[in-house]
Amino acid sequence: MILARVVGNVFCTIKHPALTGCRLLRVAPENGGPELVAVDIVRAGPGDLVIVQNEGNAARQITGREDIPARQVIVGVVDSIHREA
Questions:
Q1: Going by C-beta distance under 8 Å and a sequence separation of 6 or more, which residues neighbour residue 54?
Q2: Residue 83 lies in a domain
Q3: What pTM was computed for the model?
């Protein structure tokens, strides 16, 4: 899993049938890696800090769609993070 910030929406006029009804968002990993496109199942919004599951089998299990062509799924919106010194 990775922490990422929602930076935008992704709109597709043509897409794989398994993505029908799926909301897609652009997310930027907090560690500075490249932006990703993730399936949103928690109704995250622009600027939200989110938890992204980054593994294909988990994406299939979480969405319940065996043929979904996705690796990244937003599984949580972070309210706060407490770091120990």
A1: 1, 2, 36, 71, 72
A2: no
A3: 0.89
